[in-house]
Design brief:
By secondary structure, the chain is mainly beta. The chain is about 10% helix and about 45% strand. It contains two helices and six strands. It has helices at about 55-65, 105-110, and strands at about 5-10, 15-20, 25-40, 45-55, 70-85, 90-100.
């Protein structure tokens, strides 16, 4: 079997690093990935893809990635379900990253804010509440 995904996009907000109850370090962030074609209005739409990074890489993510920065992520796709407060079943699709690469360094655009093309990164208000996190996702 094979499950491999490679994505390049911009961070929608600063990454979030936390520790699970069992002491594992995990980093979560969402990247906006442009679709390869324009919509009817001539605008490029983007997919917002949640990424999860574990271990040493997670600490590196937290220290070195920032909102608006472009990053290349390599990993596998994971789809899981959880029960929402209203009793309905919700599905979550996320990427469990094995690694990531900087397309731009933090300093490349930190002085003047994000580059002009990262204006799309200001979508935060549209995201709704964060998805419950399944802390025992296997590595």
């Amino acid at each position: 079997s094979m499950n491999k995904i490679i994505l390049m996009g911009r961070l929608v907000r600063d990454p979030e690093v936390r520790y699970t109850q069992t002491g594992k370090v995990v980093c979560q962030f969402t990247i906006a990935v442009d679709r390869p074609f324009a919509n009817q209005d001539g605008q490029r739409e983007a997919d917002f893809i949640p990424v999860i990074v574990w271990g040493k890489q997670a600490e590196l993510c937290g220290n070195s990635l920032t909102k608006g920065q472009r990053v290349l992520v390599e990993g596998r796709l994971q789809i899981r379900s959880y029960d929402a407060k209203d009793g309905s079943k919700r599905w979550v699709t996320e990427v469990i990253a094995n690694g990531f690469e900087f397309i731009e360094r933090k300093g490349d655009f930190a002085n003047g804010g994000a580059p002009a093309s990262a204006g799309k990164a200001d979508f935060e208000s549209g995201f709704g509440s964060p998805v419950p996190f399944d802390e025992e996702i296997p590595f």
